[in-house]
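Notebook p. 47: complex prediction with zinc ion.
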Amino acid sequence: MTVVHSETRTSNADSGSPSAAAPSTPRLVAALIGRPGRTQTVFVPCPEFCSEPHGEEPEVAVEDITHYSDIVFMQVPTLLSEDTAHSELYCRVTSDPVSPDPRMRAAHVLYGDGNGVDAYLTPDMADELADDLVAFAAEVRGMARVARSANEADAG
Ligand SMILES: [Zn+2]
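Predicted complex, structure tokens below:
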């Protein structure tokens, strides 16, 4: 398994936000709003964790803007296919400022596996998941030892 921290998105951190010196005040970033050929730049509050290039990819309306951090993802290989991962897991911090659900308006952790429906975790839920993943990883490492020993016993 390989864990990759994506660095492909450009951060908005140096976008010249007038609130950059006051972290408790939401920074304002440029966002491109409108339909192709009919866009304009507006300034929207954007949380510090967000690395979305709001000023590059247009949204039709301001309420379509969602904030996302960089993504961390992990692919699960299979020995039956060296070219294709069996599955993937990914996480990022996100918030939807106009969601009717206050839990979705707050910063939370998105967890997905590429199967269409993502999971949304409060920070406490994400901590619990992280604990479970650490325990799971220890079990996987133990199984690798068992398999390696079995193969060495067969070979010897
Ligand atoms: Zn943002």
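Notes: The pocket of zinc ion is lined by residues 46, 50, 52, 54, 67 (CB under 6 Å). The CA atoms of residues 73 and 90 lie 4 Å apart.
Next step: compare against the earlier run before touching the bench.
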